[in-house]
TrEMBL record, chain B:
Keywords: Iron, Iron-sulfur, Metal-binding. Transmembrane segments: none annotated. Residues 149-179 form the 4Fe-4S ferredoxin-type domain. Residues 1-102 form the 2Fe-2S ferredoxin-type domain. It comes from the Bacteria. It comes from Streptomyces poriferorum. InterPro entries: 2Fe-2S_ferredoxin-type, 2Fe2S_fd_BS, 4Fe4S_Fe-S-bd, 4Fe4S_Fe_S_CS, SDH/FRD_Iron-Sulfur, Succ_DH/fum_Rdtase_N. Its cofactor is [2Fe-2S] cluster. It holds the Pfam family Fer2_3. This is Succinate dehydrogenase/fumarate reductase iron-sulfur subunit.
Length: 223, 248
């Protein structure tokens, strides 16, 4: 069955849909957690600390966090490898273009591949910036995420990178969520409008939620 | 009407092709698009040139032979087959671009004619039912619920023209394959091969070199028979069900 999934274009799309939905679920949780920054440094830092002790004493220190990380890395790798292989197939299937070109599909649909690449590069920068602190501007303090977030969004490039990536994420989610529903067989003519609305709402809420943090730092609401 | 046509000319599968420009005059707006091309070909033959090769058969919109991309749209600006497109959809003095279906699974044979036998092989892989031969059974011998009958009819409308593949930016045959799979899988007559049909037809579709589906929706917009986009989702559901049930 695993072989059938991986070898078929429909199966590979299923893998993309499932891994995409796992990442989408994570994004929702991550965004809600980020919004704690509006309640002050104690609550935000306390939440960040809880992420490390989550599941104790049943789980060892940081195990829950590492389980989430492993699942996410697996999802990213499966999603990216499937996307690469399917894109290769798609480009081979249509080698010559029409002479008479027409604008096709929506902006979100046309930017899925670029959006994915932008987000992959963003994740690398994001982890080096706020998890390991390798490329962090100013002194990175482990255990003080509130101050680290303010440092990052006090630089112009920190804001630009973050906001561009979040806009790409919003567009990706808008087409991706609806697309995943179709791939998993949930598409019906009667359900189409509801699924599209849900995709739009998810994309909008995630984008606004994530972008509100750098905007709040820039405007001095969070300092 | 006086028109300027830019037509894809290609001597054979191996030769390189290019757009050639032709002027046609005296076109009535009551002519079908194919009759307009017939007029062009009569002139080309009289001048001793090679007529433009294009596929056509019934000219009633039911056989699925005609296959032209007109101004970038499969079957042109109206939602119908090329043979049912009339010149009243164009203005006097228009320049019209005419190209063949573009997909690596549909190689160009000559000019505007492409080889669509990949579709035949997808049908051979599972687009049939095992029915006992003999006298026709009574019409009410196998009851079919009305919603299922409607669903089957909606998908049975597919004429296999390939406009979905031509319109798809990935050259994907998902809409065609889903129409054929859904048509038979929902009916009791198609039940014995329900799982193998979808697995084999999707497998054949992949091995013919069609692209995958990215849900752009271009196929359903171009389909002259109105096969809806959710058909693809219905087939995906059948495929996932079959993958769980059949172990290969």
């Amino acid at each position: 069955m695993t072989r059938t999934l991986w070898d078929s274009s429909v199966g590979k799309k299923t893998i993309m849909a499932v891994s995409g939905l796992i990442m989408l679920l994570y994004l929702v949780v991550h965004m809600v957690g980020n919004l704690k920054i509006f309640f002050g440094s104690d609550e935000f830092n306390g939440y960040a600390h809880w992420l490390r002790v989550m599941g104790e004493p049943f789980l060892h220190h940081e195990w829950a966090l590492w389980i989430v990380r492993v699942v996410l890395v697996a999802a990213v790798v499966l999603h990216a490898v499937s996307a690469y292989q399917l894109s290769r197939r798609d480009l081979r299937a249509r080698p010559s273009k029409y002479v008479h070109k027409k604008p096709r599909a929506s902006y979100a649909t046309n930017t899925m591949r670029y959006g994915g690449i932008i987000m992959a590069l963003f994740i690398v920068w994001h982890i080096l910036d706020l998890t390991t602190g390798t490329v962090h501007s100013g002194g990175f303090q482990s255990g003080h995420p509130y101050q680290n977030v303010i440092d990052t969004f006090s630089t112009w490039y920190g804001n630009v990178i973050y906001i561009v990536a979040m806009l790409a994420m919003g567009l990706h989610v808008q087409h991706g969520f609806w697309s995943a529903a179709q791939t998993l067989g949930a598409g019906r003519a009667t359900r189409d409008r509801a699924l599209k609305t849900l995709a739009n709402v998810l994309a909008l809420v995630l984008t606004v939620g994530f972008v509100s943090v750098p905007v709040a730092v820039m405007t001095g609401v969070v300092s | 009407m006086k028109l300027t046509l830019r037509v894809w000319r290609q001597k054979n599968a191996g030769a390189p092709g290019a757009m050639s420009t032709y002027e046609v005059d005296g076109i009535s707006q009551d002519m079908s698009f194919l009759e307009m091309l017939d007029t062009l070909n009569e002139e080309l033959i009289l001048e001793g040139d090679d007529p433009v090769a294009f596929d056509h058969d019934c000219r009633e919109g039911i056989c699925g032979a005609c296959s032209l991309v007109i101004n970038g749209d499969a079957h042109g600006p109206e939602r119908t087959t090329t043979c049912q497109l009339h010149m009243r959809s164009f203005e006097d003095g228009d320049t019209i671009d005419i190209e063949p279906w573009r997909a690596s699974a549909f190689p160009v044979v000559k000019d505007l004619v492409v080889d669509r036998s990949a579709f035949d092989r997808i049908i051979q892989a599972g687009g049939y039912i095992s029915a006992p031969t003999g006298t026709a059974p009574d019409a009410h011998a196998t009851p079919v619920p009305k919603p299922d009958a409607d669903f089957a009819f909606e998908h049975a409308e597919c004429i296999g023209c390939g406009a979905c593949v031509a319109a798809c930016p990935n050259g994907s045959a998902m809409l065609f394959t889903s129409a054929k799979v859904n048509h038979l899988n929902v009916l009791p007559q198609g039940a014995p091969e329900r799982e193998t049909r979808v697995l084999d037809m999707v497998g054949q579709m992949d091995s013919e070199g069609f692209g995958g589906c990215t849900l752009t929706g271009e196929c359903a917009t171009a389909c002259p028979k109105g096969i809806p986009l959710p058909s693809i989702s219905a087939m995906n559901k059948e495929w996932l069900r079959a993958t769980r049930k059949v172990h290969r």
